[in-house]
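Worked example (supplementary).
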Amino acid sequence: MNKLEIHGLSKVFQSQMGPVTALENIHFDVKEGEFISIVGTSGCGKSTLLNIISGLESHTTGEILLDQIPVQGPGSDRAVVFQSDATFPWLTVYENIEYGLKVKKIDPKQRKQIVEELLSLLELDKFSSAYPKELSGGMRKRIDIGRAYAVQPEILLMDEPFGALDIVTREMMQDELLRIWSERKKTVIFITHDLEEAMYLSDRIILLSPRPGRIKEVIPIDFPRPRSGQLRESQEFYQLRNQLRHIMGQ
Amino acid sequence: MKKMNIKIFSFLSVLILIGIWLLLTLSGWVKPLFLPGPKELYEVITTSYKDVFMHMGYTLIRQLGGFVIGSLAGIIVGLLIASNRYIEAFMDPIIEILRPIPPLAIIPLLILWLGIGALPQMLLVVFGCFVIVIVSTVEAVRNVPRIYINAARTLGANSFSVYRTIVLPAIIPSLVGAIRVAAGASFGLVVAAEFMGAQEGIGYYMIIAQRYLRTDMILLSIIIISALAWLTDQAIRILERRLTRWSERHS
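After joint prediction of all chains, the assembly is encoded as:
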């Protein structure tokens, strides 16, 4: 069963130099519960693609179907975790995670239950009344993830969520994400420029080539789950990385 | 230890200022007519404190009324402007015309139109505070980081919810800042308005004192109004700290 289908999607920007094609003939499906990564160099249009799926940006041609229904504008069925820190600084950790539920007018009892479950899943219970400024970058990312999970989206969109973190924190957050994802299965589209990150996390990788953004290759990643840090140092991982690196550079 | 040392320096500067005042007045180098000494100041406090407080009361009502009305109107109109492109296009020229007018410059007009009662004085404060607050409000709404708005929308918030749950809390630090500036300005404006034409109020009292060469009364008025302005500022700072505990500025 396909959760998301994208047919013949393109995006043309009007710039001062005339029209610029950012995305051309993008076509792919995402299965229910699948973790898919879209990888490409900077400026290949991968973030534009995610913004179109989330409804924050418009597209020029083609269609996007979520559960066979065309998407229109942003909505909590496609929650986004952004690269930059998007935690609301005036809300506590608890209130941040509760935000989407409050906006959707979920009743307080149910709200409390959802938030408390997520707080413990994310190991944030001790910080529930802290403000984001008191927490590290990695912790704030967990809030973003929890906040997106709380609204129970059909699909979770992640736009280079760990791009601004240092390497150690980033790998820790990748493990965290896999742990959360294995406990609460979600369909995920994950944008990154980091091949290893994509390989470590995904069921499938879509490689985009830049200017205009086109799908270059779709690569299934068959490493068994659950995955752990040892995978990153294994021979197979290394070989696949080189192979993908080669395709990307072509 | 270092913090302590720095505090001593601040304390020292106040002591030196008071010292210079005492030296100049007690030594007789400067006549009480130009700068009253501690003795004259004490006398005027004991003899005319009733008058001063009465006039101060009139002034405070005008200042507070003008400040509250002007700031509130500034916030409300500012939020309206920032919420809708058509309102913005309509209001923008009006704001741009009002903004560069020095508030004191409209005193003659106000007196001509409304006489020398309390109303024109309060209106001057309203005008001054309104312009300060409205400009900051519009600016603050424009500066709300896009990422918060996008995040809210992808979490299911509609435009109204975005305005209420994202824009309003996000602009509070800038708003409180603008309100502090407006409060400071309001004291200056109300006294200036009373100089130009009033029948009561601390500004009026000072003008009368000047006519009778009562420098002691003038000095006392200055001290009281400054103390009030300072206290108001401190109160707003406490409020600011309460309201913006989350902000990076107070880490």
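Two points are worth noting when inspecting this output. The first strand of chain A starts at residue 2 and ends at 15. The domain at 1-77+187-250 of chain A is CATH 3.40.50.300 (Rossmann fold).
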